[in-house]
Automatic annotation (TrEMBL):
Residues 1-79 form the Acyl-CoA dehydrogenase/oxidase N-terminal domain. Gene3D superfamilies: Acyl-CoA dehydrogenase/oxidase, N-terminal domain (1.10.540.10), Butyryl-CoA Dehydrogenase, subunit A, domain 3 (1.20.140.10). Its cofactor is FAD. The gene is caiA_2. Residues 172-307 form the Acyl-CoA dehydrogenase/oxidase C-terminal domain. Pfam families: Acyl-CoA_dh_1 (PF00441), Acyl-CoA_dh_N (PF02771). Its EC number is 1.3.8.13. Keywords: FAD, Flavoprotein, Oxidoreductase. It is an enzyme of class 1 (oxidoreductase). InterPro entries: AcylCo_DH-like_C, AcylCo_DH/oxidase_C, AcylCoA_DH/ox_N, AcylCoA_DH/ox_N_sf, AcylCoA_DH/oxidase_NM_dom_sf. One of its GO terms (molecular function) is flavin adenine dinucleotide binding. This is Crotonobetainyl-CoA reductase.
Length: 330
């Protein structure tokens, strides 16, 4: 129900034209206001704090839908921030920074913060502590990637407040899980666009989707898209407030691994039209590559999965895969 309601708003406001306008510096307020006024920012906020108090599995399709529409705003991150801080989060757009570097003088720096150039606040993991930072007091530097709102933010020591708690890792896990879901959603959209194009594009008297070589590429692509969707669902399968550590690691690693193949296959099957700025495909494949690197690529998360396997006693790899992601591993 919530997913359908949000998708209805996204269809009206998060159009490709609106996304391009925001990327070029246009106002993001119409899209943000439409989502905020609908009350969806409090989906994960406990009922005791005035929220809907929904569980992670229920909200997971919402995060995937945001990727399917290439939403250029930190809406998912703001939902997570309110889940972690309840009503302590001020108004406006809040993003997540999974890792901050503290300098010797007490200043902070967060590299490649998602939507760092647009946000009002940053909920950050600072040496394992949960810290809410005012983005308006930060020095912002864009990441330099075309169309990206990510940036490197730095704060002087005087602008760094005290920590809320020692639950800083929750920011990293939430951010990684959100990016895994966004990748899965974008992949679903890219696969749909590619399949439609292959059915519509004719060559030698028939659609190119009927050629065996093209069908083979589409089938491999479909397998990776389906696997990414299941992995993203795994990240939000826990019963707690924060995504499970190992499940998140598996999800982020698997979705990130699929990005190069899915993106390259989509562009290859689209041919010359697929690389043009006017065609919508690049709105999604660019973000897939960006989200792949956000919070660490598959190399970072695969190492975490490997360490979990090696430090636990399992009779077989199958036993590990069947039980560990659901909270039975350290």
């Amino acid at each position: 129900m919530f997913t359908e309601a949000i998708e209805a708003i996204l269809r009206d406001y998060a159009t490709p034209e609106a996304i391009r306008a925001i990327e070029k510096g246009g106002a993001a307020s119409p899209l943000w206001n439409a989502l905020e006024e609908a009350g969806f920012l409090a989906l994960l906020t406990p009922e005791s704090a005035g929220g809907a108090g929904l569980s992670l599995p229920v909200v997971a399709p919402v995060f995937t839908a945001l990727g399917r529409y290439a939403l250029p705003l930190p809406f998912a991150q703001s939902i997570a921030a309110r889940a972690l801080l309840h009503d302590a989060v001020p108004g406006g757009m809040t993003t997540l920074a999974g890792a901050c570097r503290r300098r010797a003088d007490g200043a902070l720096e967060a590299s490649h913060v998602p939507f760092g150039m647009l946000c009002d606040h940053v909920l950050a993991n600072v040496d394992g502590e949960l810290v809410l930072l005012d983005a308006t007091r930060a020095e912002r530097k864009p990441c330099g990637v075309h169309g990206s709102a990510a940036g490197t933010l730095s704060w002087r020591a005087a602008a760094v407040p005290g920590a809320f708690s020692s639950a800083g890792e929750a920011v990293l896990l939430f951010s990684a899980a959100i990016h895994a879901a966004a990748i899965a959603g974008a992949m679903d959209r890219v696969f749909g666009m590619t399949l439609q194009y292959c059915n519509d594009r004719s060559q030698f008297g028939k659609s190119i989707g009927k050629f065996q070589a093209v069908q083979h590429q589409l089938s491999v692509m479909a397998q990776h898209v389906a696997s990414a969707a299941m992995a993203a669902e795994l990240a939000f399968s826990g019963e707690g407030v924060v995504p499970e550590r190992l499940a998140t690691a598996i999800a982020k690693a698997r979705t990130s691994m699929a990005v190069p193949l899915v993106a390259s296959t989509a562009h290859a099957l689209h041919g010359a039209i697929g690389v043009t700025a006017e065609y919508d495909l690049q709105l999604f494949t660019r973000r897939m590559h960006e989200w792949r690197m956000a919070d660490g690529s598959e190399a970072f998360w695969n190492r975490m999965v490997g360490n979990a396997l090696l430090t636990q006693e399992y009779a077989t790899i199958a036993d590990f895969a069947r039980t560990a992601p659901y909270g039975n591993a350290a």
